[in-house]
Amino acid sequence: MATTRPNLNAVALVPEELDSEVCSTGFSVLRPTQLIDPSFLFAFVQTRYFIETVSGAVKGMLYPAVTDKQVRNVYLPLPALADQRRIARRIPELMQEVEGARAACEKQLEAAKALPAAHLRAVFESEESKKWERKKLRGVVKEFMSGGTPNTGIPQYWDGDIPWITGADVTNLWVSNGRKFITEEGLNNSATHLVKKNTVLIVTRTGVGKIGIAANDLCFSQDITGVFCNEKILPEFLVRYLLYQGDMLIRVQRGATIKGLTRDDIELLEVFMPPLPEQNRIVSYLKEKMAQLENLKSAIQNQQSALDALPQSILRKAFRGEL
Fold first, then answer.
1. 281 exposed, middle or buried (CB, 10 Å; 0-12, 13-18, 19+)?
2. What is the mean pLDDT of each successive set of 10 residues along the chain, which is 323 residues long?
3. Residue 254 per-residue DSSP state
4. Which of 100, 123, 178, 273 qualifies as a cystine partner to 165, CB 3.0-4.6 A?
5. 133-273: what CATH class?
6. How far is it, in rounded angstroms, from Cα 135 to Cα 157?
7. How far apart are CA 111 and CA 146, in angstroms?
8. Beta strand 219-220 pairing with 270-273
């Protein structure tokens, strides 16, 4: 057992092939007597009770550690050797079942993560989509807006009340605030623009393929191009279509040192143009599917949290004599 930072529970059972090897003074070596089964002892030092007990004895801030004596002073239940061996056999069996359930959850979550792309393909690769008009993006946009960064060396440009985002802040469909805010002075003395709600945000460098919609007025860095749609295309429809084309955007980016998309790359993108009622129907359909997907992912994650708690629950039962 590692005696430094015992809360991390760095413990191991020495395998037969490492018998009689040596270890550093950073370990407390627990050699079982004939009264205790090694696997039973190994299970015990992984219990929350043991971890909290030895962690509570830690001294020192820079080098938090416990001594051999403090480790050996911890009390443990000691049933008959036959019961110890039975418990020691049962614990790995139950832990294996937990790992199997975890693996199944991981597969479910991976499958769920693939669903958004599947829903987009179902819409934009449908037979109906083949009938839709297609136009260059420059033909359905009122304005393209570039971004910029106020001088970071001038304090009065920063810590204002105007949201300023970078490509790293585009993590959801709707983008409201980033990690930084600028002042009116910073806005007026830089290349950034203040754009209105519903402006489509296309990340053109450092994260190409990420798309979002401004949930409120905001500014952005040179990593983003803002697109303000005309009355013939809904911003949410355009964003869903661009997300469908995300891989294509990544493929067409160029540049030797820093890859990205140019204004021409964006303006020349071909977009589907179904009638507005059809756009509304598609947006509603995809919203519903994404809401269902979020509920599914939440249920899987809750299941994962429950499984993460099971190993300690198994160990508690084992050392209460309930296995």
1. middle
2. 94 93 92 94 96 88 86 93 95 95 94 92 93 91 92 95 94 91 95 93 86 95 92 93 82 68 86 94 95 94 94 93 87
3. B
4. 178
5. alpha beta
6. 40
7. 37
8. unpaired
Q: Which ranges of 126-234 does DSSP label H, i.e. alpha helix?
A: 184-188
Q: Which residues pair with 273 in a beta bridge?
A: 133
Give the separation between CA 3 and CA 224, rounded to whole angstroms. Answer: 50
> Angle formed by the axes of helices 235-244 and 81-124, to 10°?
120
- Domain ranges, ordered by start, for the chain: 6-78, 81-111+277-323, 133-273
Contact between residue 296 and residue 112 where contact means Cβ atoms under 8 Å apart? yes
Residue type, 148: G
d(CA 149, CA 221): 5
Helix axes 235-244, 276-318, angle to 10 degrees: 60
Which residue, chain included where needed, has tokens 């599917």?
289
Report the distance separating Cα 238 and Cα 283, nearest Å.
10
Q: Say if residues 321 and 77 touch (Cβ distance below 8 Å).
A: yes
- Residues 236 and 226: their CA atoms lie apart, in Å, by 14
